[in-house]
Amino acid sequence: MEWLIALVVVGFLLLVSVSKSVARPIRWLGVAALQLVIGAILLFFANLVGEMAGFHIPINPVTALLAGFLRLPGVLALIVIKLYIMT
After folding, report:
1. What is the pTM of this model?
2. Per-domain residue ranges for the chain?
């Protein structure tokens, strides 16, 4: 009986994933996840450079998404916020 329920759930998930109404939001989630990873990598390198000056930007989902979507201007904005507004 459990295998029947599992089969129905898997079938429903396959049907929903093939549907065009769900494909676009899933693609946006993939893009956001990619930007999150890119932002975390950018912040990691900014922290490596900033370590020489005793400087650190925390890597969390908000800062990583900001740095990921805005790239270098986003990292620079986070540095300006950290240096001039947060102190």
Report:
1. 0.72
2. 2-85
